[in-house]
Write a structure and sequence with these properties.
alpha+beta, 3-stranded antiparallel beta sheet, single chain
């Protein structure tokens, strides 16, 4: 029986099912746009989610998470961090963490944001 390393070595170039994330987060090829509640719940969202929405807007209203990650590293107007400290998590990692809440599938449990709210929508 072959071990996992042998199988990887033999199939890596032919394998179309390579992971698109590294260490968590959402799929980097996932394309997102504004959800129905993005504007009305803007003030109630966590800062990282507000920055995510701002980046989507800056990129024309729809973007992949890879584009959002890249933009967060170069955006001078909206720093991906608080004060002068950069966030440890990438945009895709935050999106992955909040995904079920961001898409309105599960409820938020924040002081000012309770219940379901569609903040972002996944598009094809």
């Amino acid at each position: 029986m072959k071990n996992n390393n042998e199988v990887k070595a033999n199939t890596k170039s032919a394998n179309p099912f390579q992971p698109t994330t590294n260490g968590g987060g959402a799929n980097l090829n996932m394309r997102v746009t504004f959800g129905a509640d993005a504007s009305s719940e803007w003030d109630n969202c966590p800062r990282q989610v507000q920055l995510l929405l701002n980046y989507i807007h800056e990129l024309g209203g729809t973007a992949t998470l890879k584009q959002l990650n890249d933009f967060s590293e170069t955006s001078e107007a909206n720093f991906w961090g608080r004060g002068d400290e950069i966030y440890n998590q990438t945009v895709s990692k935050i999106t992955g963490h909040y995904l079920s809440r961001l898409t309105g599938a599960t409820e938020w449990e924040r002081k000012n944001l309770k219940g379901k709210a569609e903040i972002i929508k996944i598009v094809r």
